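Chain A, query sequence.
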Amino acid sequence: MNYAETLHWMFNQLPMYQNQGATAYKKDLTNTLILSEYLGNPERKIKTIHVAGTNGKGSTSHLLASVLQEAGYKVGLYTSPHLKDYRERIKINGENISEDFVCDFINEHKSFFEQHQLSFFEMTVGLAFDYFAKEDIDIAIIEVGMGGRLDSTNIITPLVSVITNIGLDHTQFLGDTLPLIAAEKAGIIKENIPVVIGEYTAETKPVFIEKAQNESTQIYFASELIDETFPSVLLGDYQVHNKKTVLQTIKILQEVSDFKITEENCRNGFLNVIKNTHLQGRWQVLQENPKVICDTAHNKDGLKIVLNQLQKEEFSKLHIVLGVVNDKDLSEILPLFPKNANYYFSKPNIPRGLDAAVLQKVALEFGLIGEVYNSVRNAYEKALQVASSGDLIYIGGSTFVVAEIL
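Chain A, predicted structure.
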């Protein structure tokens, strides 16, 4: 199979949460462990940092990778989901895994995947670990896909574990309270492996402390330990928390390993994160006059911060290109959006995308008024057509909406 055929097989033949939602979610690590043993346990051959959290884990992972790259290390980066190309999920020093490696890996092991009915995510995690081991990287930043305890990435023994924050998201899988979700995320905390917590609440802090005590490990609350950060090319207000988390993680990494990272490496890593890792979609300004901003925030906690920041911008009129997935709790997120904006409702081009007419109908109940468009691209083009030079266009609601514009 060529690259296009390989991706088609991966996306369509096997379960994939990105497309299907709940039916793709697996509740144990059995398959991942079977795959790891079959591949020769590649995750044991690499040094790692494990990053979980409801929001901010993508930015945190990319910032960590950038700092380590500035320090001269060969850095693997595993994240999800991708925006444009599947290969964005697996990078070394900012360069995507090659199409040939993806094709060869799938073609070589296809019968094994079919025999064991491995999910899309399980295969991809195996591919990442295999690639990083064969490329002899110095360290890999491994982002959790969802949750932590039962996530396929949770077979690694990292140098440091990181949990950015806890919010109400994926409640159908992880629990419907902050302590329950925190317990799932805390599943990445391992015996004698230090853990850095980015943000916490009165409800989640005791969960983290108890888990760390049970695992006889040190726990560090970055928000309490780091007073100042460095400037970054990532402009969202929420990046302040992520930068503190990264600085605390780098500090601990140097204490538990022989990695050498200077303050200058940290400064340059923050400033060069987009150049070093090609991160996109975080408070990304696409143009001026009219100003266009896109952001992948898609749950209550993330959107609250982003939409507050949006109100700090200067504009004559606000235009919002909005789309969501069909398992999103609209009663949680729609009240956050401003009523004094023109809305352009659209459906992300994935099976999980919510019909734009349904979104429009529910949005109207919250005083959000706008028209329906048959694609995200058409919605965006209409907003550009209508907006004057002093207006602001915001694109968001879903990672997949942003992906279609980028």
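Residues 174 and 181 are 5 Å apart (CA to CA). Residues 17-25 have pLDDT under 50 and may be disordered.
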